[in-house]
Amino acid sequence: MNRFYAMISRMKYIDRWGLMNNTKTENISEHSLETAILAHALVTIANTRLHEELDADKAAVIALFHDASEIVTGDMPTPIKYYNPDIKNAYKTVEKVAEERLISMLPDDLKEIYRPLISNDDAVLERYVKAADKLSALIKCIEEVRMGNNEFLKAKEATEAAIEKMELPALKIFMEECIPAYYLTLDELG
User: Fold this and answer.
1) Mind listing the UniProt keywords for this protein, alphabetically (predicted)?
2) 159-175 pLDDT per residue, tens
3) What is the pLDDT of residues 47-102, one digit of tens each?
4) Which of 39, 71, 173, 187 could form a disulfide with 59, with the two C-beta atoms 3.0–4.6 Å apart?
5) Contact 60/99 with Cβ under 8 angstroms?
6) Which of 134, 183, 140 is nearest to 160 (CA)?
7) What pLDDT is stored for residue 82 in this prediction?
8) What is the C-alpha to C-alpha distance for residues 115 and 111, in angstroms, rounded to an integer?
9) Is 21 within 8 Å of 148 (Cβ atoms)?
10) Domain 4-189 - what CATH class?
11) What is the rounded CA–CA span in Å between residue 182 and residue 100?
12) Domain assignments of the chain as residue spans, ordered by start
């Protein structure tokens, strides 16, 4: 019996931002979709504007699975995950075990197709997926602050600082050209 896809569908049950007071909860399924859209956008910008030759579709699929291990581990809040190097390294090990557990649920003929997507063995695309992941977090912070939830002010500042350090030209373009629209209302967007 192939249990992989049923397990993946459980991403919708894992909430993010567990330590924060949210005006709207966000699960890893929603977050992964947004991250996939953003990863695709970043790679498309890099290809079109910066003359890279990267696979935007693969970046999007990697992003869809980038937090799949959290089905097994749950979402570890960032302040805990990065509290010190020992915790960070231990969590990375747990993530790898969880990824292997998910891959083991696939039939043998599909394992090597999904392994690079779940374990992301593409260092170049990983940078874009990580940038998209940070953008998704920033967008969540922007939305929460726009709703008057000051709980997300520090997270927004920290996320903006992390994005600034990433030194990815396509990310800089997205920040300048696209992020301002996330501050607009529906009527202003229309």
Assistant:
1) Hydrolase, Metal-binding
2) 999 999 999 999 999 99
3) 999 999 999 999 999 999 999 999 988 776 666 666 687 777 777 888 888 899 99
4) 39
5) no
6) 134
7) 65
8) 6
9) no
10) mainly alpha
11) 36
12) 4-189
